[in-house]
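I am writing to request your help with a piece of structural work I have in hand. A protein sequence and the structure tokens that stand for its backbone fold form the material at issue. Please examine both parts with care and let me know of anything in them that strikes you as inconsistent. The record follows directly beneath this note.
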Amino acid sequence: MRNFLLIILAFAITSCKFQKTQATKELNVLFIGNSLTYFYDMPQTLQLMLNETNPNIKIDQSTNPGQSLSGHLSNIITSRTENGISTRKKEEGEQTETEKKLAKKKWDIVILQTGTVSVLIPENREVKVNKAISEIKTLVSNPNCKFILFNTWPSLKEYPKQYCYPSSIIDNEIDKDKSCSPTIENLEQEIELINKSYDLVAEKNSLLKSDNGTKYYEVLTNYPEIELYEDSSHPNKYGAFLNACIFYQILTDKKASELKYNGEIEPKIAGILKAIAK
């Protein structure tokens, strides 16, 4: 009996040490995306939240204005301003900034964000988005890396609306002049279509998925006095704070509502956004 108790005690001590190791091991997280990710320094805000409870989680980013996931793999940035970038197609043997970043570390988590419109147009989603995600996954050296799809939100453009790309920029083999999303009549239809589109991408590529779109919808419908947008699509400081809260919870499995950190957000509004992020 005494030996049995000693075995149980030894197992408990080993288990506690393992959990402590897991909690303190440095976890490297990379955001790949565009201005929907980096507006109002969302990744840096997320890091400040993590520093309060999980300083072992380190956030990095490869985010450029207007850049699609496919662009992260195919375009060399030739110049950069505050509002945009100029690019050229990479040549054989060259690596893009994102490819170099992916090779730099053994990433534990990669969060992938592309423009909302790019997933709403079926042809672009199937040909460009899925292909880019598949290629990015092959460039990550850590076989245990988790990939998270950043599910974005509706734009503020008036209804009805429809988004179209020239088919030639998607694939020359598409036999029509332009490829379009369904016509969208109202906010409820738009959020449903956005979420369904991201669900299809996540399922196709075996990705986890965030729920930022639904959380934006909750604020838009239940707290219209809280403005989340800088313009028709980009987050302002409140939208960025909400996004950071959502990813804080995904990365830590802890409640954002228990965070002390509010940044530049008024405490009452911060409390509402933290609660919605659950």
About this structure: The domain at 26-155+187-276 is CATH 3.40.50.1110 (Rossmann fold).
